[in-house]
Amino acid sequence: MDHSGHDHSTHMDHSGHGDMHSGHPGMGEGAPRCSMNMLFTWNTENLCIVFRQWHIHSTFSLVVSLLAIVALAAGYEALREGIRQYEAWTNKRVETTPHPREQYRDDDDVEPQLEDEERLAETTMPWLLGQNVAAVTKRAHAIKSVLYGIQNFYAFMIMLIFMTYNGWVMLACSLGAALGYFVFGSRTTATKETACH
After folding, report:
1. Inter-residue contact 183 to 192 (CB < 8 Å)
2. Distance of alpha carbon 41 from alpha carbon 168, whole angstroms
3. All residues at 6 or more sequence positions from 175 whose CB lies less than 8 Å from its CB, including other chains
4. What is the DSSP string of the chain?
5. CA–CA separation, 151 vs 166, rounded Å?
6. Would you list the DSSP string of 40-57?
7. Which has fewest Cβ within 10 Å: 34, 80, 177, 187?
8. Could you tell me the pLDDT band of residue 21, with boundaries at 50, 70 and 90?
9. What is the pTM (predicted TM-score) of this model?
10. Cα 184 from Cα 74, distance rounded (Å)
């Protein structure tokens, strides 16, 4: 079948469409765009930080964003210190949790000691009555697991912010980490086990 006589130009002509991107937000000529750099840069034109909505439009928005990044990075160090304090508190709580009565059932010499421990628990830690070491440890471990997940999510979000490869943003992340360590990390070493958290 020979189709050489048919006019195919009317089916393929898209000249009446104009700019195909003009009707789509963020795709037209005047709409702001996010530039994604994979190389180090100091350029802040069309800089977006992690989300399209976190777009740097002016020097003022850059300064506010950099201050927010410093606060976020310092907040991460505050979170880490809070988790360390929670772990110390739970370790102390596990140590002071009364042991179950079954441990002393066969030993008559320990009965006076048991009464002293119960009296101490009643006067100093009434919330621990009826609990045992295994229950306290299990609950503490579940809470620490949730906190660990939050800490990792936070760390990876800061990593994504750092990975804009913008020098100003990278400096803000580092300054925030240093400030957070200065304020919250007085009882920890300056070395870290991993690079991102």
Report:
1. no
2. 9
3. 70, 73
4. ---TTS--HHHH--GGG--TTTTSTTTSSSS---B--SS-B---TTBB-SSTTSB--SHHHHHHHHHHHHHHHHHHHHHHHHHHHHHHHHHHHHHHSPPPGGGGTT-GGGHHHHHHHHHHHHHH-GGGTT--HHHHHHHHHHHHHHHHHHHHHHHHHHHHHHTT-BHHHHHHHHHHHHHHHHHH-TTS-S--SSS--
5. 24
6. -B---TTBB-SSTTSB--
7. 187
8. very low
9. 0.65
10. 8
* Position 151, amino acid: Q
Pairwise pLDDT comparison (44 vs 101), residue with the higher score: 44
Q: What does each C-alpha distance from 135 to 83, 94, 97 come to in angstroms?
A: 20, 9, 10
Contact 38, 149 (CB under 8 A): no
Q: Which of 159, 174, 176, 185 is nearest to 82 (CA)?
A: 185
Q: Rounded to the nearest 10 degrees, how much is the dihedral formed by the CA atoms of 80, 84, 86, 91? A: 160
- pLDDT, average across residues 143-162: 96
Quickly tell me which residue has 């306290």 as its tokens.
Answer: 136
pLDDT at 6 over 80: no
Residue 70: which of 164, 197, 166, 174 has the closest Cα? Answer: 174
Q: What is the C-alpha separation between 46 and 19, in angstroms, rounded?
A: 22
Q: How far apart are CA 193 and CA 176, in angstroms?
A: 19
